[in-house]
Known about the structure:
Elements: H1 2-20, H2 25-39, H3 45-57, H4 62-92
Helix pairs in contact: 1-2, 1-4, 2-4, 3-4
Amino acid sequence: xxxxxxxxxxxxxxxxxxxxxxxxxxxxxxxxxxxxxxxxxxxxxxxxxxxxxxxxxxxxxxxxxxxxxxxxxxxxxxxxxxxxxxxxxxxxx
Length: 93
């Protein structure tokens, strides 16, 4: 039950970030950092810096890579799927 609740929280957090952040992936980084590092303490500031550097060097949008890593760090593959789906769903809608 706890895993499902955390995955839902990841999904809703990144859904809100995806829906209300305009300007692309780099604009989302500060919002992701504020939510995941400062408010929810899911990752450390060093993790966020490392995620950003790695996300810039890997294929794909930076914000999606950051969301995927944060979700994976929290709840493994299901968390990665939940965070990524939440971030990209507003764009598809």
